[in-house]
Amino acid sequence: MKKIAFVFPVYNEEGNLEILHKEVKLACEKAQVTYEMIFVNNGSCDNSLEIIKKFKHSDSHVGYVNLSRNFGHQGALCAGLTKVRADAVITMDADLEHPPSLIPEMIQLWQEGYDVVYTTKENHHLPFFKYKLTQFYYWLLSKLSGFTFHFGQSDFRLIDNKVLQALLLMPEYHKFLRAQITWLGFRQKGLSYHIGQRITGLSKFSFKNLFSFGLDGIFGFSHYPLRLISLTGFILAGFSLLYMLKEILIPFFLKITNIDPNIELPPGWLTLAGAVFFMGSFQLIALGIIGEYIARIFDQTKNRPNFVIKDMDLSQ
Ligand code: UDP
Ligand code: MG
In this structure, which topology does domain 3-222+305-313 adopt according to CATH? Predict the structure, then answer.
């Protein structure tokens, strides 16, 4: 019988774990597969780890990886993925927003031959502005990278073991799993779901977290921002030349050749100040964009791991 592994990143989810454990178990029984559950405790400061250890005592399918601190959502997923011993793995959040009821269908599609079954949210709990911004982000990321990223895509997905092995060989420090898996290719199929309700706790992703995660996607998967700088530079240089021709060179020419001796030459300081401010701010933006890439090269060359394991106890 085929074996499915589950990886759950857990950061202060004490109120959701019991139901998650029970529902995933039921879904696996329904799908008639053997399974292992890997709970990755990501530096929780509530009782999450104690609850997971309790599951481990009474259920041989359960194992856990306890990280030395919080390594972020992607860090916890990576830690769990390195410990999988199964034919396929499903990653899902521990807060019940990823419905376990979808598991049998995901497994079914995998058994039909799909290597990746990804999911997209049909509804959302986002305020209007955040919703529009996220929608625009996925559109932009698709345009810049040349790959198709679906709006509402989450890290609730099934991947076959061969995709997992290829994924684990990707050495990037700034992980953006949804884009890395899209980049890998293989036979992929999407399913949509209605986002479930968190029983307790709040989302841990602040706007700042989302912003930096979003930048990882863009700067990790596209060189276009760098090209955009050169392109903007060329366009601005063209406009500046035209402007200088019209406002300065032509009047000078007309004056010194006496074609139009009364022509007014433009007051210098105003145009100069405008041009200096404009070019100054453009150069700062350009430096910032180059800085984003350099920061990523810096992080990569340090070669630090994405997570550190304090202790673990996997299922039998
Ligand atoms: N999570 C984590 N580390 C973090 C933030 C979140 O391990 O720093 C876990 C969290 O416990 C949950 C999943 O990642 O299982 C998704 O987090 P959350 O619900 O806060 O994100 P959202 O659904 O709002 O994107
Ligand atoms: Mg959530």
Answer: Spore Coat Polysaccharide Biosynthesis Protein SpsA; Chain A (3.90.550)
